[in-house]
Amino acid sequence: MILVGANEPLPEDHFWFDGEGFSVYAAKQPRSTWQEHVHDCVQVTVGLEPAHMHAEWRATGKLRQTKEFIGNAVSVIPARVPHKTLWQRRAALIHIYIREEFLLRLASDILQQDSLELQSTYLVRDLLIEELARSLYLESEGGHLNAAVASAAVMTLCVRLLRAYSVRKGEAAYATGGLGPTRERRVREYIEADLERDLSLQSLAGVVGLSPQHFAVLFRESTGFTPHQYVNHRRIACAQELLKKADVPLIEISMQCGFSSQSQFITTFRKLVGMTPGRFRSSLTASPS
To answer: What residues does the HTH araC/xylS-type domain cover (predicted)?
Structure first.
């Protein structure tokens, strides 16, 4: 069974296609959680506008990594890698499952190598893969997918995986855009360490030694957020935790989370959460324990 992990029933109008060496799942996916699971095949997941996703995975041992992204995004998940995805809002979802033996045959034919190691890559922009997935999604909307069209798209996808997401023995990983895992982690850790401090574009760029303009472009490619949007999301997430403590005043929460004023905090909170901090706190109190 390939389609595992979904907490909620799959959409009634979802589409499934089995090809030679691959399978395709397409749906207008509602807000939903795919709990941690693994596959014995390679999974390529594409979310198309207006996707908003949160991913968790354990690529090595039990070290857990997380990432959040808004916009079109691609994930390349090798076989047997535990992973979990939360779809924050309704979006077009395409899963393409590729048998390892199918990809290995192509690796032998195209790259003349008899082994294959794919990089675990989560929530990045890849325009070629996005367009291939979009073509499969549009073709499937009528409830039918032409086998020749599907095979051609997946063959092109596999070549892209081999060229851009695979690593030969003894070679460094290919760059896939954005800041890269190390610099992205350093920026995230810097932000989380002290949300109260100055987290301007210039200060964040300085963490990784880039110009503010270059950093902003790479950060958006890596996360789907502008630096300012990401900082606001993290500050509001911190505020939501503090609001669970009924004795902490709003003005103190706004200061601890790095907002310049209580009014700025309330405005940002309402924009991102859909209600005021006071109403959010009341909803927690009213919820059954």
So the answer is: 185-283
Q: Give me the chain's average pLDDT, please.
A: 84
pLDDT of residue 115: 72
Say whether both 221 and 98 belong to one domain: no
The predicted structure's pLDDT at residue 136: 94
Mean pLDDT of 192-205: 91
Q: Are 112 and 143 in contact (CB under 8 A)?
A: no
Please state, in angstroms and rounded to a whole number, the distance separating the CA atoms of residues 45 and 42: 10
123 and 254, same domain (yes or no): no
**How far from chain centre, in Å, is Cα 278?**
31
Question: If DSSP codes are grouped into helix, strand and coil, which group holds residue 70?
Answer: strand
**Residue 185: partners with Cβ closer than 8 Å, 6 or more residues away:** none
pTM across the whole model: 0.61
Q: Which domain holds residue 154?
A: 15-164
Which of 132, 164, 196 is the C-terminal boundary of a domain?
A: 164
